[in-house]
């Protein structure tokens, strides 16, 4: 009698994969020498980032700048592009609702990243409600899990020979999506029943979420937000600051290829290696950016503190490093300075060549080019 495969694959790309195997996957699919070695390297890099971020007294240096770049990169994976100038100017507004175009989509992702982080502070585990909340915030819709018989098919993009061909058809049918989501949630939430390292669980859970494809649209961004939230909830990060989508957008073909490798060939080791490498590379990248931001902040603080007429120089410098573009209102909204004082101080920083001033349609923007260059590097 033939031995059943360790992981039954999806034999027909244009037929719903209702037989998507439940989690956990067989130990033989992840317990390889290569995967375990890469897991160790990812753990070390993430631990170093975690230790560095905890030691920073002003988390505003991280929560705005790093997460904004994560939002931009994750949106770019879905072919939603904006320039840094457009994005930072948009971010200097009060809410995403004051912004139009691709920058608005990016800011919605960032807002979902942080609202989900706050939401999970009050929850012991992930739930269907969590995924629906993230999806709704990203897409700004009221709908939830897609209808049971919606004809969802993922097709090859572009204009080449295979353009339009089915790549993958996710499960569908009454109660099927809900049942598969519940299995995924049990896997990621129950560490006693499923005692895997959180990095492995994140990678496995991300594939499973993408394979279930529970929403009409926005599944990729929702799944990538889940990656970061899961690492925070498991204590591997204190804040959702891992720049994970940077690696994915730079290795986009490999990302989709590794996803397809699991569904079409059962190649879990290649997928896990990809995701663990992404964690290692982006943890090191984020660690480096944090150090450069702090060094730049300290150097500028020394210059600003030497100007005796500028009161509370530490708060002033903290403000201009909270985001790449500062406006007068950012110094007045929490009553750090009165409006005239705030304007005078920002213009003084322009004279000192700490900031660069731009006026667009009557609005004054003060650009921290040092922070700007660190983030876009």
From TrEMBL:
<dbReference type="InterPro" id="IPR040198">
    <property type="entry name" value="Fido_containing"/>
</dbReference>
<dbReference type="InterPro" id="IPR036597">
    <property type="entry name" value="Fido-like_dom_sf"/>
</dbReference>
<dbReference type="Pfam" id="PF13784">
    <property type="entry name" value="Fic_N"/>
</dbReference>
<dbReference type="InterPro" id="IPR026287">
    <property type="entry name" value="SoFic-like"/>
</dbReference>
<dbReference type="InterPro" id="IPR003812">
    <property type="entry name" value="Fido"/>
</dbReference>
<protein>
    <submittedName>
        <fullName>Fic family protein</fullName>
    </submittedName>
</protein>
<dbReference type="Pfam" id="PF21248">
    <property type="entry name" value="SoFic-like_C"/>
</dbReference>
<feature type="domain" description="Fido">
    <location>
        <begin position="126"/>
        <end position="277"/>
    </location>
</feature>
<dbReference type="InterPro" id="IPR048770">
    <property type="entry name" value="SoFic-like_C"/>
</dbReference>
<dbReference type="Pfam" id="PF02661">
    <property type="entry name" value="Fic"/>
</dbReference>
<dbReference type="InterPro" id="IPR025758">
    <property type="entry name" value="Fic/DOC_N"/>
</dbReference>
